[in-house]
Amino acid sequence: MDIHEYQAKEILSGFGVAVPPGALAYSPEQAAYRAREIGGERWVVKAQVHTGGRGKAGGVSFCKSDREIERACEKMFGRKLVTHQTGPEGKGIYRIYVEGAVPIEREFYLGFVLDRSSQRVMIVASAEGGVEIEDISAEKPDSIVRSIVEPAVGLQEFQCREIAFRLGVEPKLIQQMVRTMQGCYRAFTELDATMVEINPLVVTGDDHVLALDAKMTFDSNALFRHPQVAELRDKSQEDPREARAADRGLNYVGLEGDIGCIVNGAGLAMATMDTIKLAGGEPANFLDIGGGATPERVAKAFRLVMSDRNVGAVLVNIFAGINRCDWVAKGVVQALQEVQLNVPVIVRLAGNNVDEGQNILAGSGLPIIRANTLTEAAERAVGAWKNDISQRDTKRSVS
Length: 399
Ligand code: GDP
Ligand code: MN
Prior knowledge:
By secondary structure, the chain is of the alpha+beta class. It has helices spanning 5-14, 28-38, 66-76, 133-139, 157-166, 174-190, 227-230, 240-247, 266-278, 295-306, 325-338, 354-363, 374-398, and strands spanning 22-25, 43-47, 60-63, 80-81, 91-92, 96-100, 104-115, 120-126, 144-149, 193-204, 209-211, 215-218, 251-254, 259-263, 285-288, 313-320, 345-351, 368-371. The protein folds into three domains: 1-19 and 103-238, D-amino Acid Aminotransferase, Chain A, domain 1, CATH 3.30.470.20; 21-101, Dna Ligase, domain 1 (2-Layer Sandwich); 240-398, Succinyl-CoA synthetase domains (Rossmann fold, 3-Layer(aba) Sandwich), CATH 3.40.50.261. Strands 7, 8, 9, 10, 11 and 12 form a six-stranded antiparallel beta sheet that branches. Strands 1-6-2-3 form a four-stranded antiparallel beta sheet, covered by helices on one side. It has a four-stranded parallel beta sheet with strand order 14-16-17-18, with helices on both faces. Helix 11 (325-338) links the parallel strand 16 and strand 17. The radius of gyration is 26 Å and the shape is elongated. Manganese (II) ion (MN) binds at residues 52, 199, 213.
């Protein structure tokens, strides 16, 4: 789960990382008021959107007066910010963070990530901060310093000092650097983060080390341990289809194709998507309803898949080991009785209670296309979808 910059700054500052004075605003007037409270003569107005690269996309604005702040905010609020990370649809700006601007002497990159090959937290740092890490590693790969933290002893001071030396930090600033790194590491481990990134971490004209930007990502599976982090979730920044699925305990990833998939088990879902492609179609989603799916859960999955306007056919593929085919069948029937059926539905059931399941489908009187194998199911789904489209086209050309 991602959080906003201002939220990450608040958390990190609680762990001893220094940040500029700042405040959140929900309207241009409030932003100007916040700036007066902060004081000073120059401010930075920053769109709070779950993405990097806001600066280049018009999401960061430098202002010298109330009027400039209000104008900058009016341009941002309610708009979608499109960056190289958001995709063309962008993400909405509903919150703006106002900060006192600081004079920058040097910009560093400081990141904490999970390194899967060493199975450790890895610190990634560079003296070429301010640009994205991908650009640093493409253009100045030699400037990147990497250091692995041994979990048994945690992040040691000498290790932080060594990183600071390798970044060429002046001796008088090293203690502040150590404090910053240790604060980030403690926040990372104590809150079950998977990423902490400060870019840029700056040295100001008056010798302060400050986090000017901050990003944190958390392990969703550990959120139950941190209710104060879980409540920072902002659904306005998520793919609405995936957010709805997560709320319903379903494992859903939206894709660009036309064949909706309802499957149990991630492996079977992958195999189903492959088989759809082999049959000449494109999956519209990945949806794993999991084991022990009740009819209600299957019906929820159905409504979710059908809510995607691109879906031209739905393929249900269940291999019931823990699941029960009769429950799945009941769920399909229940969903189709509630939701207007305007696309072909193909169901393949195998495993537990398969005969009961088939009987429920057959007895429902609904136009469900049944298949015995995965290949057959995928071919029928793609065939039915293509047929459906050509029929619609014919209807359109006749009328
Ligand atoms: P991002 O583009 O989404 O990563 O947003 P950032 O918060 O990193 O802001 C973009 C850039 O604006 C930073 O890399 C800084 O160079 C610059 N910036 C942000 N805050 C300040 C500030 O207070 N003073 C100055 N001089 N520059 C700033
Ligand atoms: Mn940044």
